UniProtKB/TrEMBL annotation:
<dbReference type="InterPro" id="IPR005269">
    <property type="entry name" value="LOG"/>
</dbReference>
<dbReference type="GO" id="GO:0005829">
    <property type="term" value="C:cytosol"/>
</dbReference>
<dbReference type="GO" id="GO:0008714">
    <property type="term" value="F:AMP nucleosidase activity"/>
</dbReference>
<protein>
    <recommendedName>
        <fullName>Cytokinin riboside 5'-monophosphate phosphoribohydrolase</fullName>
        <ecNumber>3.2.2.n1</ecNumber>
    </recommendedName>
</protein>
<dbReference type="GO" id="GO:0009691">
    <property type="term" value="P:cytokinin biosynthetic process"/>
</dbReference>
<keyword id="KW-0378">Hydrolase</keyword>
<dbReference type="InterPro" id="IPR031100">
    <property type="entry name" value="LOG_fam"/>
</dbReference>
<dbReference type="Pfam" id="PF03641">
    <property type="entry name" value="Lysine_decarbox"/>
</dbReference>
<keyword id="KW-0203">Cytokinin biosynthesis</keyword>
<comment type="similarity">
    <text>Belongs to the LOG family.</text>
</comment>
Length: 195
């Protein structure tokens, strides 16, 4: 798959383990080294700030998207290639999606999960055909993947749609998956009901 930009979702907090920040920095550097634009939430704190700073330090282009009401809370990054300020969270996600060819979630909290699953849902609905992947650092996303499998087992997610989000233990594996991704969402996301 041809990539020009990658959207990253990640925590506005740094997490308790230093390897989270190290992975965010490594990811930002890799995006820059690949000549891609990093699209992210526009903040200068936590893993968001770390990934942006690393991409910028490596000579990369970084586009931030932040709603006006979060500019001060998340301390909007002042050194980006471009900062887009939106009126709402909904507009933020729409802008991030419009400017990205792929979506990657690093470790994070509620906001990261919400952004991730909106992109997975949009893929399921054929609103985009872009890859959605997780950097599954130290098994961070294992419980989430188990929850998806539970949703399949219990009949809430079609087995055909299992591949709409993939988990990868390291950055090399993740980038290989992004470049070879082929969208294969089922035409129907609801199971066929007999009768």
């Amino acid at each position: 798959m041809e990539l020009e930009s990658i959207c990253v979702f990640c925590g506005a907090n740094p997490g308790v383990r230093p390897e989270y920040r190290a992975a965010a920095e490594a990811f930002g550097r890799r995006v820059a080294d690949e000549g891609l634009t990093l699209v992210y939430g526009g903040g200068n704190v936590g893993l968001m700030g770390a990934v942006a700073d690393a991409a910028l330090a490596a000579g990369g282009r970084v586009k931030g998207v932040i709603p006006g009401f979060l500019k001060d809370k998340e301390v909007a990054h002042g050194g980006l290639s471009e900062l887009i300020v939106t009126e709402s969270m909904h507009q933020r996600k729409a802008q991030m999606a419009a400017h990205s060819d792929a979506f990657v979630a690093l470790p994070g909290g509620f906001g990261t999960f919400e952004e991730l699953f909106e992109m997975v849902t949009w893929s399921q609905l054929h609103l985009h055909k872009k890859p959605v992947a997780l950097l599954n650092l130290n098994g961070f996303y294992d419980p989430l993947m188990a929850l998806i499998d539970k949703g399949i087992t219990e009949g809430f997610i079609r087995e055909d749609n299992r591949g709409l989000v993939t988990a990868h233990p390291d950055i090399d594996d993740l980038f290989a998956a992004l470049r070879t991704y082929h969208h294969r969402a089922a035409d129907r996301w609801l199971p066929t009901v007999a009768g």
